[in-house]
Amino acid sequence: LLAWASTAYLLLSFNAPVWYHHQFLATIPAAMLAAIAAGEAIRLALQIIRARTFLSLSTLLVVLALAGLVTVLGSRARLTYHSFALPATLIPPEAPTGGHEADFMVEMARYAFKTNWIVTDMPMYAFRQNLPVPPLLAAITGKRLSSGELTEDQIIKVIEEYHPEQVLLGRFDLPAVESHLKKDYRRVYQWGRRRLYLHGELKRSLETDQ
User: Fold this and answer.
1) Please, is 163 exposed, middle or buried when counting C-beta atoms within 10 Å of its C-beta (0-12, 13-18, 19+)?
2) Are the C-beta atoms of 12 and 25 separated by less than 8 Å?
3) What is the pTM assigned to this prediction?
């Protein structure tokens, strides 16, 4: 485990950018080592209490291990509170996790029968609705945006070329794209950062049919 964590750390030290899923290469073995240390500390603490040998090196190691465990858990509890303490329907929009997935699916399904293309930075929604995405935007990722391999101007150009009936955004900050959508699209549903847009012509035609 120590070799695994150390090797991963060294490899990531020479790689940029480092993404959150890369960090698991080092944090998983580190977490396993921490669990072993905590278990050993508890076992030694029970032995020390029974033997009453409080003034020893083992006691110092036990105190350090347990103090470190409590410190780390305390700091992480604040960061992950919204993910574990609240049911999905009560998670506030500013929380790091999302919600209302089913509501978005329902809204998208309402217009799916007249949707030929959809542009989204959350492709799972398009997949679940069986709606095609323009090839260039099949995977809008942070790496593509950060490296410049994909730009907002390119996204706008694809939107102008394909005229997608639906646009669903919410994973990345795309101010230029959002501004462009105001010309021809209408927001039909929002929760937190996630916004579902419908092309103005399609929305007007549906309203006329009703």
Assistant:
1) middle
2) yes
3) 0.55
